[in-house]
Please model this.
Amino acid sequence: MLTTGFFLRLVFFNGALGSDDRRYVLFAEQIVRLQPFETLDHAASRLLFLVLIGIPYVVGGHISHAALANVFYSLILDVTVTVFAARTFGRAAGLVAAILMAFGGLHMVFASTVLPDTLNTLFLFIAAVLVYRAIYQQPARRWLVIGGAGLTAGLAYSCKDPGILFLPPAIAALVLLQRTPLRTRLIETGLLIGAFAAYMALEGVIYLLYTGDFFYRSTAVSQVHNAGIETLGLADFLREDWRHIEFAWSQRGLLGIPVFWGVAVMIATPLRDRRLVYFAATGLLLVSYLMLGSSSATRLLPLPVQPRYFLPATPFVAVCTAVLFESFRWSRSTGMRVLLPLATLVFALSMALPPAAKLSGRMHNTGTMKQVALVAELLIDSGRDIYVDETIYREALHFLHAKHAHLKRIPVAGPLPEGYLIVYPEPRHRVPDLSDERLSKIARLPVAMHVSLDTRSVQRFGYLGSYRPQAALLVHQNFVTPTGPDLRISEGNCSRPEEPWVQCRIVVQNRNPVWAEASELAFGTSTSSISASGRTQIGPLPGRSFVTVEINVNPPDAEMPIIRVWLDPDRRLQQEDRSNNEAIYEGGRWQTLSSRENSNS
Model:
C-alpha cells in the first residue's frame, strides 16, 4: 500500500508552483550556503524546513530535487504512522492506517511540492507518539522519551507554526492521564517544556548569527504576516470562521477525510478505546484551531485557510480510524478483515483521485508560469531582448531555469527599452512592481501577443472541467515591425483520415514572431455544410511551425473546405499590406490573397 501511494505521488508530481516555494528555496539556499541575509520575511522563519529542502536544492541545482526530497519525507511519515499503528494496535489497524496515509488526497497533491506542511506533520506526529509511549507504555528511560518529545515538538514548530499546537494536549495528557505522584507529573511537564524551549533558544542563536536578530522568527510573524491582516470584531471573526467551514466543504475531496470524517472519528474513538483520548484531543485541536483560530494571541486575526494546512491532522485521523474499526468485535472476522480495508481503500481513492488529477500541474501560478516560459522560449529565438516585471522575473526562474538569463527586468524609470515587454494586463493579477504611469506607457505599445492562460491547456491529465483562466499575459513590442509579404506557406495539404472529419496540416513560415490563426471560410451549398471548428491559434511563430485543423464536414462526401490562414488577427495592418499576409487553401494549393485576386481577374 505504501509503495503504491509513493508511486502515485510521483505520478501527480507538482514541483515548482511559482508561489511561496520560490521564497522558500531563496532563503534555503542562503542558509545552506551559510550566507547571512537581512530581509525580514515570514518564509525565512522556518529554519529546519529550509535546511532539509535546501540541501537537495543546492546539491541538485533545481527546485524539483527539493520537491522530490519532500516526497521521500512524506513516505517516512507514512511508514512511521503505519508501524506505530501496527505495533501498538495490531496488523489490521496498521493496514487501515497505511491505506489512509498512502491514498489521502492531501498527501497525493502536496507531498511533491516545496512546502513545509509534510515535515511539520512528520515531526509533530513523532512527538505525539513519544508522549503516548511515556504515558501508556512506561519505557525504561522515561525521562529521555519525554525530553525527546519536547525536542521533536521544537523541530515541528521550526518547520511551521502549527507545531506549537502539540504542547497543550501533551501537557494535559502528562498531568491528567497518569497515576504517578503529582510532583513527578509536574517535573515531566517541565522537562517537556524545557526541551522545547531549549531547541527554540538554539534556533534563536542561529538566527542571531544569520540576521543579527535572536527573535527573528517572532518579529517576522508579527511584522510581516500579522501586520497585513485586519483586526476583526467578534461578529466579523465568527462570520469569517463560517466562511472557512464553507470553504472546507467546497474542498471535501481533499478535506473530507481529515476534517469532516476526522472530527466524527476522533470524537467517537475515545468512547471505544480510552487509550486514544490523547491522540484524538491532539487531532481535534489541530482541526478546530486551523479552521477557527486566530494568528495572534492578543487580536482577532483570522488564520488563512488552504487545504494543505490540515495535513498535520491526517495521521491522527488515520490512527483513530484504524483503532475504531478494531474496537468492534464483528470487525475481527476473516471476512471483515478483508472487507474493511477494501472499503477504506475505495473510499480514500474516490475522495483523492479527482482533486489530485485536477490540481496536478496547475496549482497556484503553475499554469501562468508555464505559459510565461513558453512565450519567453519562443521569443528568445527572435534575437530581441525580453523584459518582464519583477514578479514574473522572480517566479519564472524555476520554469525557465537555464534560459532565465535571457529575461531582463523592465526598468522602473527612464525610456522604455527596445524589445518585447511581458506584463499582466489585469490589475487583479499584478503585484505593484511598476507604477501605473509606467504600465500606461507600456499599454500604448503594439501588442505582439495576447495569451489567455486557460489552465485547461496546461492540464497534465486532461481533467475535464470548467475553469476560469488564471490570468492573461500581454506581450508588447517596442520596435518597428516591417510589413509586407511576411507569410510563407511552405507546405499544406488536406485529407480525410477519419470520416466525417477533414484534417488540414499547415506549415507556416514567417519573418516576425506574431500570432497566426487558421479557420475555414464561410462555405456551404444546398448539399453540404461545415460546422465550424472555430479559429485555432498556431503562434507565436518565430520561424517554422505547423497546425492541424480539423473540420467537421457534413455530409462526408462533401467537397474539401476552403481554409484561410492569416497573420495580424487584430487587423492592425493597412488594407494594402493585409493581402500579402493572408493565404487561401483552395483547389489543392495555397495562394496569397493578392495572387488569387489576379488569377480570378
